[in-house]
Design brief:
With 124 residues, the protein is mostly beta strands. It has a single domain, classed as Jelly Rolls (Sandwich). The chain has no helices and 12 strands. Strand 6 and strand 7 form a beta hairpin.
Length: 124
């Protein structure tokens, strides 16, 4: 049974957010990716279309999640499910940082508004 200790988690920084990868193919997972998402500063996230379903569980802070144009405020303990193919953005409403756990099936890709694609290593 693979165990990923916090000290061994791989950190990625992108678009002002921090993605701390625990379960990924690089860590031995065959099907699921799990990471901690830290939004250190209040502000708007980057809208992107996701290729696979993502589940978010907010641990700390207040976040607005917008899925296909429908917005909801999440507070600690709330969860949101973004379907595959949906347009998604997460905004840290502040006043401080926000943290969530995120899970998806491996192979997730994101398409940004300009058409560029990202295959995040924490989700592959």
């Amino acid at each position: 049974m693979p165990v990923i200790h916090a000290a061994d988690a791989v950190v990625h920084d992108l678009h002002g957010a921090r993605f701390t990868s625990y379960a990924s193919s690089a860590a031995g997972s065959k099907e699921l990716g799990v990471w901690r998402l830290d939004l250190p500063e209040p502000g708007a996230g980057i809208p992107h279309r996701i290729s696979r379903e993502e589940v978010f569980v907010l641990v700390d802070g207040d976040v607005r999640v917008t899925i296909d144009g429908e917005s909801h405020t999440l507070r600690a303990g709330d969860a949101a499910v973004a379907p595959a193919g949906s347009m998604l953005s997460l905004d840290n409403l502040g006043p401080g940082p926000a943290t969530a756990w995120v899970s998806t099936s491996l192979g997730l890709e994101a398409q940004l508004a300009d058409g560029s694609r990202i295959s995040p290593p924490w989700a592959n």
